[in-house]
């Protein structure tokens, strides 16, 4: 009898934070890929910087909180919080070094070769450029700036989270005045500290005269301010000035049991976010040691949390550069989401859903049917009620507008707005208040849980009685990100789904907990057990001599119980193919444990966001989609939904999505037994880019439908209209 493995062994697991750093390095690999158009590489480098900011504000901040609280429990990989911080200190400094090596040694030079020159230091401006910059500063920048001196009457100012600032050391011009202070001959001159925030209301990229026909030249706003900083301190010599930037703990601590009004409590906590503990200090390499010590001491930042940057601080400005006009030849051809064939004919959304379940695949197909679903429901006199969960929505959301209109039209509208959606809290508070004002019944989620599920229920009166229409998705009701994130959704009026959807909203708005479900599985009470059952069933089938096969696509995998179940299934002979974009705490290639498991990560033009799960089930395969990843927070601390896809043709489409991604040889990176990732070995293999294939298939499906219906030749749009 084979020896039973101990799947609790910490050596079988990778630390989630270190795994996330590997993900950001995979994004960085796109920025370093010389086969990509130059401006696409800028975009990916900007994304790595934005990702790292959030990682520090949330994950590193959380670990520091644990250390401060003397929390010593180890993670699944056997590391304490302090040990994780030690290891992260090494890999994050290395990641930053790689970011700036990519910027300095590759991108800046290639930009100049292609007609875009970045003047990195104001000292490098020629005479005409210098005169232009100085005049531009006087007219546009000087009136906006607020220099802040620090002395006995003026304490160290609040340095706001993520803002760019310039610190300076000053000495008085009036030497007589200095002597009165005790600064006699031969004694060290007393230096004073001052700082000025680089204003976020002004564009950071400043165009200046190039001197060359057809070329563009820019300088960054902080360099313009540094060049003219003496104009802010007229009675002083500026001894030195350098930019700096801090990252603060941005994790909100909300005691929901004690909060009488969750909305007001979150509003109060949001204001504190700017005062959170400083957890990272970025400074320009070569900063004056005296200046650094003042900043470091006042912000209470340890040496290990100082990042000396060889280049411009905060590379997220590259996304603004990516958006500049005139460089389309240096960008990838833009894709516009295609029409969904089932919705290309005129007619009611409800009529089309009654004809059969409809699968949506974003951003390859447009998000418009989802918006139209809510809009039509808002106007339709036969619609009695609309219920929806909202986690993140766009800045000018047509869905919010439609829900408000529905309430004004007298319909029963219930909306769960998740106020605790990280970094969207303020945004969601605004929407919640607006919906309440319009007459919607707004729910702020369940105590202690985030509601992350994506579900809409429309209750409609029809000739044969009440019918319920449901949309379920893997992504947010955000029409903007639906053009950038890959997600799937289903629209259905199946009675079993409608009954479950009603039970979901009754549970969210009241205290009604159903005794059983027809087909949906919800976290935090039932979903994890459902996944463990489905994985266990494959293991039992394999032990019985049947073929066991699991394909699972998700964003992150770090739940220990799920990973242990996958190990057990793999050891029993189940073939397990995982497509995990980000964090993966599972290890491959462990003898007798995970030799039957493969893991791949796809980083492409669109952010992979869909969660799709395939189980062989002895030849009678089952396919599910979900709002949940295989993470403890999704399975134990959030309201999430897993929904089956039962229509055979839709099942086929989802299996096709998984198959194409498993064949990707261009954008996929494979997890190796040593924990690193490498690009697919393409020798003898066809070049397959899954995202490009889905774009092509969506255009072909729309073309086929148009030509079938009208006989006209359909012209798919490839360019996004600005």
Commentary on this structure:
The chain has 722 residues and is α/β, with parallel strands linked by helices. It folds into four domains: 1-120, Up-down Bundle (Methane Monooxygenase Hydroxylase, Chain G, domain 1); 121-253 and 280-310, Polyphosphate kinase middle domain (polyphosphate kinase like), CATH 3.30.1840.10; 341-519, Endonuclease Chain A (Endonuclease, Chain A, 2-Layer Sandwich), CATH 3.30.870; 523-688, Endonuclease Chain A (Endonuclease, Chain A). It is built from 19 helices and 27 strands. It is globular. Mean pLDDT is 90; it is low at 177-186 and 717-722.
Total of DSSP H or I helical runs spanning 4+ residues: 19
Number of strands: 27
Low-confidence runs: 177-186, 717-722
CATH homologous superfamily designation of the largest domain: Endonuclease Chain A
CATH class of the largest domain: Alpha Beta
CATH architecture of the largest domain: 2-Layer Sandwich
Radius of gyration: 28 Å
Percent helix, as a range, is 25-40%
Helix and strand composition category = alpha/beta
Biggest pleated sheet: 10 strands, mixed
Mean of pLDDT = 90
- Percent of residues in beta strands: 15-25%
Distance between the termini: 66 Å
Q: How many domains make up the 3D coordinates? A: 4
């Amino acid at each position: 009898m084979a020896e039973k493995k101990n799947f609790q062994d910490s050596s079988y697991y990778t630390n989630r934070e270190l795994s996330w750093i590997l993900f950001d390095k995979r994004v960085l690999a796109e920025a370093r890929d010389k086969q990509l158009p130059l401006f696409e590489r800028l975009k990916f480098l900007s994304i790595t910087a934005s990702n790292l900011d959030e990682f520090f504000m949330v994950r590193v901040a959380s670990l520091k909180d644990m250390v401060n609280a003397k929390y010593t429990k180890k993670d699944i990989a056997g590391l304490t919080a302090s040990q994780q911080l030690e290891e992260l200190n090494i890999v994050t400094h290395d990641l930053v070094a790689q970011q700036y090596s990519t910027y300095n040694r590759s991108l800046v030079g290639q930009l100049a070769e292609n007609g875009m020159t970045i003047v990195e230091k104001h000292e490098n401006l020629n005479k005409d450029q210098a005169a232009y910059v100085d005049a531009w500063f006087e007219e546009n920048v000087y009136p906006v700036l607020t220099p802040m001196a620090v002395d006995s009457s003026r304490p160290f100012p609040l340095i706001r989270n993520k803002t760019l600032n310039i610190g300076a050391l000053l000495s008085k011009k009036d030497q007589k005045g200095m002597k009165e202070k005790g600064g006699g001959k031969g004694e060290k001159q007393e230096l004073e500290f001052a700082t000025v925030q680089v204003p976020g209301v002004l564009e950071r990229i400043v165009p200046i005269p190039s001197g060359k026909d057809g070329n563009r030249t820019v300088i960054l706003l902080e360099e313009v301010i540094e060049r003219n900083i003496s104009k802010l301190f007229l009675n002083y010599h500026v001894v030195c000035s350098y930019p700096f930037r801090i990252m603060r703990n941005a994790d909100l601590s909300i005691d929901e049991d004690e909060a009488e009004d969750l909305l007001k409590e979150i509003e109060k906590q949001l204001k504190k976010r700017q005062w959170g503990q400083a957890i990272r200090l970025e400074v320009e390499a070569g900063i004056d040691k005296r200046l650094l010590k003042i900043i470091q001491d006042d912000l209470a930042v340890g040496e290990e949390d100082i990042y000396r940057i060889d280049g411009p601080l905060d590379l997220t400005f590259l996304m603004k550069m990516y958006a500049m006009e005139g460089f389309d030849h240096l960008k990838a051809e833009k894709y516009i989401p295609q029409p969904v064939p089932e919705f290309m004919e005129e007619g009611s959304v409800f009529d089309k859903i009654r004809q059969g379940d409809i699968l949506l695949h974003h951003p390859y197909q447009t998000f418009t049917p989802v918006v139209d679903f809510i809009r039509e429901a808002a106007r339709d006199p036969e619609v009695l009620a609309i219920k929806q969960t909202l986690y993140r929505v766009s800045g000018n959301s047509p869905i919010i507008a439609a829900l408000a209109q529905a309430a004004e039209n007298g319909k029963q509208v219930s909306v769960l707005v998740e106020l605790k959606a990280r970094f969207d809290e303020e945004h969601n508070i605004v929407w919640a208040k607006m919906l309440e004002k319009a007459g919607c019944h707004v729910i702020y989620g369940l105590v202690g849980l985030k509601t992350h599920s994506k579900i809409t229920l429309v209750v409609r009166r029809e000739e044969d009685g009440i019918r319920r229409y449901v949309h379920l998705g893997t992504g947010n009701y955000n029409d903007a990100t639906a053009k950038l994130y890959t997600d799937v959704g289903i629209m259905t009026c199946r009675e079993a789904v409608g009954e479950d959807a009603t039970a979901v909203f009754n549970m969210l708005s009241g205290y009604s907990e159903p005794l059983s479900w027809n087909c949906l599985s919800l976290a935090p009470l039932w979903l994890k057990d459902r996944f463990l059952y489905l994985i266990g069933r494959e293991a039992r089938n394999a032990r019985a001599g049947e073929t066991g096969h699991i394909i699972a696509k998700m964003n992150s995998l770090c739940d220990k119980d799920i990973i242990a179940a996958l190990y057990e299934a793999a050891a029993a002979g189940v073939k397990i193919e995982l497509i995990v974009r980000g964090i993966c705490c599972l290890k491959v290639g462990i003898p007798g444990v995970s030799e039957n498991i493969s893991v791949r990560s796809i980083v492409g033009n669109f952010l992979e966001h869909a969660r799709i799960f395939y189980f062989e089930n002895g030849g009678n395969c089952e396919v599910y989609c979900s709002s949940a990843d295989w993470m403890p927070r999704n399975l134990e601390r959030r309201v999430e939904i897993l929904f089956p896809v039962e229509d055979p043709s839709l099942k086929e489409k989802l299996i096709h999505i998984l198959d194409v991604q498993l064949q990707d040889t261009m954008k996929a990176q494979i997890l190796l037994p040593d924990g690193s990732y490498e690009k697919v070995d393409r020798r003898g293999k066809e070049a397959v880019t899954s995202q490009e294939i889905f774009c092509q298939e969506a255009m072909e499906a729309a073309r086929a439908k148009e030509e079938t219906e009208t006989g006209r030749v359909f012209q798919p749009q490839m360019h996004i209209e600005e």
